[in-house]
Amino acid sequence: MSTNLTQTSSFLFRFSYWHLILVITALNRVGRPHKKHQPITFPILDCIFFKHINPAFDEVCRPTSIPILTMVSSATLYSLCTLAVCIYLWQRRPRTSRLPPGPKGYPLFGNVWDIPHDHSWLTYAKWAKKYNSDVIHLNVFGAETIVLNSLKAATELLDKRSSNYSDRPRMIMANELMGWEWDFAHMPYTDRWRRHRRSFHQYFQPRNLSAYYPVQRKVTVTFLEQILQTPEHFSAHIRQHVGSIVLRAAYGYEVKTEDDFYIDLAHKAMQPLLLVVHAGANMVDFIPALKHIPAWFPGATFKKNAEIWARDTLKLRDIPFENLKKAIAEGTAEQSYACDNLEKLTVDGVIDPAEEEIIRNCAGIMYLAGSDTSASLVHSWLLAMAHYPEIQRKAQEEIDSIVENSRLPDFNDRSSLPYVEATLLETLRWAPITPLALPHRVMQEDEYEGYTIPAGATVTPNVWAILHCEEYYPEPFKFNPDRFVKGVNKGGLQPDPISTGAFGFGRRTCPGRYLALNSAWIAVASILSTYNVSKAIDNEGNVIEPLIEYEDGLVRYAYYTISSPFKSAHLPQKPP
Ligand code: HEM
């Protein structure tokens, strides 16, 4: 009797197992865009079944196995089978609408194997050509993404229809597991986001930015002196320059050394974030149920990492803020966004906790959002100057004609220095800092050029492709500041990269862009007036050609193979 039961359950198990294999194989054959005479190759999942699971099941299913377990396994396999068929049918449901083109993908898995893992903007731009469409559609396990590869599509959807396109995708790994939900760059388009954005904007709108001029001048003089002393560490000096400005603006905190405690804190929190917000980096963003897997479960490394990283995330938000509150109580706090707002909103020694949370969150995000991005801009600008000495000379001549080598350039000189300004704009275009900006999410189904944009889809502008589009920027790979100088360029002025995606689009456009541009402007104008940027020379006196290479990621960072781009011209002078 018992032998019979064991044999029956074993038969059922084998039957359901092969049934599942057949279903998966059949679904893959149906959906696979294979050519006529091409042999069918099985994707990863099939291989896993045939190579590993099948022998293991064979072992388990010997008639000596425990029948009840085998029965349960059979039921599970049947459930999986049914689920696979259901998902397949759902994906293939007849749509009255037409999705934009894109790589075909596989049933159930969609484009999981097509998603590019590095320099994805290049692949997206190639696909736009291949499918002859500026709008591309991708689907991973049913989660849909629309990539906008042209200025026309990005401005039409993200700017003009911004009331529908200003949400953010869910970002399970970053927000729900690593604790970044307080960062308003990640927040959904809700009242909570609006209150954060308003608080930030009131303080950092262009007419309020002159309040930061003194600090920007001061840290620029320190920056020039540091370059003189250790030019080979120019990269660290740039980071300290931009980091000092944002930390002063946020908390009134003065950065004194390159290995400053706050900067270190921010880096620890930021590095994992930059890793995980990468497209396709986390399966949990495509399969939300995975977030419930316990951290001890084999293979759930992402949960273990997230728990560790979440501690740094909260430290970044809380430690500087608590220190500031102590400084306010002791009467030693300097003027800053957080200090001014805390004082303004405190009545009889009490502040509404919701208001305090907004100040804490907005201050906490400033270093995160503003340091790597602004540093990347100055980095790429230096790289361009080392590569194009004639452009550098022209910018230096313009500066010399205004400041006459008697002082450092100042913000009042800015409108008289259009060519210097143009070098900065051209850097934003030539080396886009955030090549895919940040993803938006469309809230309601929409239509663009006859294509359906499904509700809930992630909408990603390919800023790199837009800023390298020949139609707007002829010879897009050439560094040519004349594009942005009135009356110089033969074809007329080309569109300003600030309005073509360098800082994102619509209601989510970067609110720190003017602060960032001011910091970068004072740094580059001061470098032009005091140094020559040139390629480094090796020990034998040979010029080292800097390779133009960029780190991959959310924020694109130039790294060069030169030891120092500086050649001292004359000492930095005191600011006016
Ligand atoms: C050159 C430097 C910078 C670049 C290239 C840059 C770029 C961007 C981009 C592309 C976005 C996303 C826009 C979108 O979703 O369409 C963004 C958002 C944001 N940036 Fe910047 N940024 C820079 C500097 C700064 C600075 C200095 C700060 C703060 C002091 C800052 C604060 C923010 C914030 C808070 C957001 C989130 C806005 C929201 O979601 O509503 N950024 N930035």
Automatic annotation (TrEMBL):
Pathway connected to this protein? Secondary metabolite biosynthesis
Keywords (alphabetical) are: Heme, Iron, Membrane, Metal-binding, Monooxygenase, Oxidoreductase, Transmembrane, Transmembrane helix
Which ranges form a coiled coil?
none
Q: Which PROSITE patterns does the protein's record reference?
A: CYTOCHROME_P450 (PS00086)
User: What InterPro entries does this protein's entry cite?
Assistant: Cyt_P450, Cyt_P450_CS, Cyt_P450_E_grp-I, Cyt_P450_sf, Cytochrome_P450_fung
Named cofactor requirement(s): heme
Q: What is the top-level taxon of the source organism?
A: Eukaryota
**Keyword Cell inner membrane carried by entry:** no
User: Can you tell me where the transmembrane regions are?
Assistant: 12-30, 68-90
Entry-linked Pfam families: p450
Q: What Gene Ontology molecular function terms does this protein carry?
A: heme binding; iron ion binding; monooxygenase activity; oxidoreductase activity, acting on paired donors, with incorporation or reduction of molecular oxygen
Q: Which sites bind heme?
A: C510
Q: What family name appears in the similarity comment? A: Belongs to the cytochrome P450 family.
Q: PANTHER family, alphabetically?
A: P450, PUTATIVE (EUROFUNG)-RELATED, P450, PUTATIVE (EUROFUNG)-RELATED-RELATED
User: What protein name is recorded for this chain?
Assistant: Cytochrome P450
